[in-house]
UniProtKB/TrEMBL annotation:
Transmembrane segments: none annotated. InterPro entries: GDSL (IPR001087), Iah1-like (IPR045136), SGNH_hydro_sf (IPR036514). This is SGNH hydrolase-type esterase domain-containing protein. The keyword Hydrolase applies. Belongs to the 'GDSL' lipolytic enzyme family.
C-alpha cells in the first residue's frame, strides 16, 4: 500500500492542487512513492475544523495504515479582525490554540506514528486586501492585518513547541524576501505561484528533517528503464 501525505487546511490548502499550487508540487515530487491526499476547506477556521476533523479524515487510510505525515494549516481565517468584514470567521487567539491542540491530539490518537506538521498563518498584504475586500465590506479597512496575523503565527509556534511538533513559520519566511507582498500573495492573502513554491520548498524541507523524502520512501514499481524487456513479468515481481 502506498504511503500517504495528508494536507488539512483552509482555502490555501483547498487551492493547493491548482496549477502552480504547493499541493500539486508535492504530488509531483512524490508521484512514484506516495499519494498526496487533499483535505482543504475554503473559509474554515480552527473552530469549524475541530468539529469536522474526524469526518474529514474518514477514509484517508484503509487497512489500518497510517499516513506518513499530515500538514495542519489554519489560522488565516481565525485572524480576521472581530470588528470588520470577516468577523464571522474570527476566533480568539487562545481558542485558536486550543482548537489546534484538539485537532493535533485527535490525529495523534488516530495515528500515533504519523508526523504532524503545523503551518502558521501567512503574512497579510493589507493593500491587497483593500483591493480585494471580503464579501460586501465597503468600510475601506482591511478585514485582516499583518500584525494580527503575526500574533496568530506566534501562537501557532508556541503551541507547536508545547506539543513537540514541527512547525513551518511561513509568516516569517515569506517576509524575509523583499517585495513579498506582491510576489507571494495574489490578493493580499492567497498565494501566487511563487508563494506556493516557497511553501512547497518549506514542506519538503520539514518532511526531510523528519525522515520523509524520496530517498527514504521506496518507489512503488520499477522505473521503465529498469524493466527487463525480455522478461517484464520478472522485473515486476510476478
Amino acid at each position: 500500500m502506498r504511503p500517504k501525505l495528508v494536507l488539512f487546511g483552509d482555502s490555501i490548502t483547498e487551492g493547493s492542487f491548482m496549477e502552480g499550487g504547493w499541493g500539486a508540487a508535492l504530488a509531483n515530487q512524490f508521484s512514484r512513492t506516495a499519494d498526496v491526499v487533499l483535505r482543504g476547506y475554503s473559509g474554515y477556521n480552527t473552530r469549524w475544523a475541530r468539529l469536522v476533523v474526524e469526518r474529514a479524515m474518514d477514509g484517508v487510510c484503509v487497512g489500518g495504515a497510517s499516513p506518513k505525515a499530515v500538514t495542519v494549516f489554519f489560522g488565516a481565517n481565525d485572524a480576521c479582525l472581530p470588528d470588520r468584514g470577516g468577523a464571522s470567521q474570527h476566533v480568539p487567539i487562545l481558542e485558536y490554540q486550543d482548537n489546534l491542540r484538539s485537532i493535533c491530539s485527535f490525529l495523534k490518537e488516530q495515528w500515533p506514528t504519523t508526523i504532524i506538521i503545523l503551518i502558521t498563518p501567512p503574512p497579510i498584504d493589507e493593500d491587497g486586501r483593500l483591493k480585494n475586500p471580503y464579501g460586501n465590506d465597503n468600510s475601506g479597512l482591511p478585514e485582516r492585518t499583518n500584525e494580527f496575523a503575526g500574533a496568530y503565527a506566534k501562537a501557532c509556534i508556541a503551541l507547536a513547541k508545547e506539543s513537540d511538533l514541527p512547525v513551518i513559520d511561513i509568516w516569517s519566511k515569506m517576509q524575509s524576501f523583499p517585495g513579498w507582498e506582491k510576489s507571494f500573495l495574489s490578493d493580499g492573502l492567497h498565494f501566487t505561484a511563487l508563494g506556493n513554491r516557497i511553501l512547497f520548498e518549506e514542506v519538503v524541507l520539514k518532511l526531510k528533517e523528519k525522515g520523509i523524502s524520496l530517498e527514504t520512501i521506496p518507489i512503488d514499481l520499477p522505473l521503465f528503464s529498469d524493466i527487463d524487456t525480455n522478461d517484464p513479468h520478472k522485473s515486476l515481481g510476478k
